[in-house]
Design brief:
By secondary structure, this protein is of the alpha+beta class. The chain has two domains: 3-41; 57-122. The chain is 43% helix and 14% strand. The protein has four helices and five strands, in the order βββααααββ. The protein has a three-stranded antiparallel sheet with strand order 2-1-3, with no helix packed on it. A two-stranded antiparallel ribbon has the order 4-5. A hairpin with a 5-residue loop joins β4 and β5 (147-149). The protein is flat, with a radius of gyration of 30 Å. It starts with a strand and ends with a strand. The relative contact order is 0.07. The mean pLDDT is 75.
């Protein structure tokens, strides 16, 4: 069964059509606005791999390129890709993506909380340093050989 994708020239949205046969008469119509001004798109191709091929590919260090270990969103994208590559998406079900999204949110909250705590600690440190400064008028030697009052 061929799958054809079209971009509507009127509304710009993409429509996908599944045909029962290549020889079936077919006249595409936009599913959103009803326009017949559609341009056919080149669809993605899926390549089936054996489990051995998929596992072998995982040993390639290049598969981790672009993954930032300190960025939860980057790790989540990699986990989703890994799940799809290994064909685990069907086994794990739709809950897998939800669990990954929840893990991202928790990691972001934790990181934001730590940043907030660090910021508060820095603020209290700088406030205590300001309290340690001498009060009243002081003089400081200027760069031009004289002294100036602060």
């Amino acid at each position: 069964m061929p799958i054809y994708e079209y971009r509507c020239q009127a509304c710009g949205r993409k429509s996908t059509f599944i045909l029962l046969s290549i020889n079936s008469p077919f006249e595409p119509v936009c599913r959103y606005c009803g326009s017949r001004e559609l341009k056919r798109l080149v669809s993605r191709v899926a390549v089936l791999r054996s489990e051995e091929s998929r596992l072998e590919r995982l040993t390639d260090p290049a598969i981790l390129s672009g993954v930032e270990e300190n960025d939860p969103a980057s790790l989540a994208r990699w986990m989703k890709k890994f799940g799809r590559e290994m064909g685990m998406g069907e086994e794990l079900g739709p809950e897998f993506d939800q669990e990954i999204e929840q893990a991202i949110e928790e990691a972001e909250r934790s990181r934001n909380q730590k940043e907030s705590e660090n910021s508060e600690a820095e603020d209290s440190t700088s406030a205590s340093e300001e309290n340690d400064l001498p009060s009243g008028n002081s003089t400081v030697d200027s760069d031009f050989g004289g002294s100036e009052e602060i």
